[in-house]
Amino acid sequence: MAWLQLRINTTSEHADAIGDMLSANGSQAVTFVDAKDTPMYEPKPGEVLLWPDTQVVGLFDASDDMKRIIDRLGKARVLGADFKYKLEPLEDKDWEREWMDNFHPMQFGERLWICPSWRDVPDPNAVNVMLDPGLAFGTGTHPTTALCLRWLDGIDVKDKTVVDFGCGSGILALAALKLGAKRVIGIDIDPQALQATEENARRNDVASRLDVYLPENQPQIEADIVMANILSGPLLELQPVIADFCQADGLLVLSGILAEQVPKIEAAYRTQFTLDKSAIDGEWARVSGKKHP
């Protein structure tokens, strides 16, 4: 099937309304793209962020009467008759195959691999986490996740109790379990993230050592290792909660942090932790350390 993309530049204030208008006029899918190439930082689970200058993209069947649709859109007050747009054909491809071809097994550190289920495992003797893109964020492709996975690969996880705060897809929880953790507690504000984490744990035969909770149901626990790959705002706001999960002499790793945000994060956690040198990957960073006795 041939497709057309209609692109409309607007502001975050009007993006949702324009997206609804595109859907009402037959768009098969609507996406929001940054119109000024501003980086999109990873949101909290369940949160949708729109940029100050947003491009709304509607996907239409090539047989649709686009002149009529554009005329109708121009009658809306939020756009006006002279609104700027770009209409372009979308190359006809096997999109499912194209999507699948973009995901390859990825190695993190010496032992750890993240592998999509439709690919051959490169090293059967390695620690292989089978994980497909799905309901929740986290397949290892984002630098924040990669920073945490490399850190996990470099420490002793065997027989440890681990908290994965903001577990998303469960990628860090699964990696910890595959590396020998005795028990992992996954916590997330999004029920779909918990569902994804549990499903991925079953696929990797580690579900018996995993428990997941919404924040309001999370247990009181002091873990050997605490991981929180979220955002700098929640890391600062929830510092007491995250720190309390970590037992004396326990290990902590934090990510979802921009490089320029590192000093604030370090200042917030240094009172209770002896911090390692922070790791930087492009514009993203990882903060880690050991809790004071």
From TrEMBL:
One of its GO terms (cellular component) is cytosol. Pfam families: PrmA. S-adenosyl-L-methionine binds at T145, G166, D188, N229. The keyword DNA repair does not apply. GO terms for molecular function: protein-lysine N-methyltransferase activity. Keywords: Cytoplasm, Methyltransferase, Ribonucleoprotein, Ribosomal protein, S-adenosyl-L-methionine, Transferase. InterPro entries: Ribosomal_L11_MeTrfase_PrmA, Ribosomal_PrmA_MeTrfase, SAM-dependent_MTases_sf. GO terms for biological process: methylation. Gene3D superfamilies: Vaccinia Virus protein VP39 (3.40.50.150). It is found in: Cytoplasm. Its EC number is 2.1.1.-. It catalyses: L-lysyl-[protein] + 3 S-adenosyl-L-methionine = N(6),N(6),N(6)-trimethyl-L-lysyl-[protein] + 3 S-adenosyl-L-homocysteine + 3 H(+). SUPFAM superfamilies: S-adenosyl-L-methionine-dependent methyltransferases (SSF53335). PANTHER family: ELECTRON TRANSFER FLAVOPROTEIN BETA SUBUNIT LYSINE METHYLTRANSFERASE (PTHR43648). Belongs to the methyltransferase superfamily. PrmA family. Methylates ribosomal protein L11. This is Ribosomal protein L11 methyltransferase. It comes from Alteromonas australica. The gene is prmA.
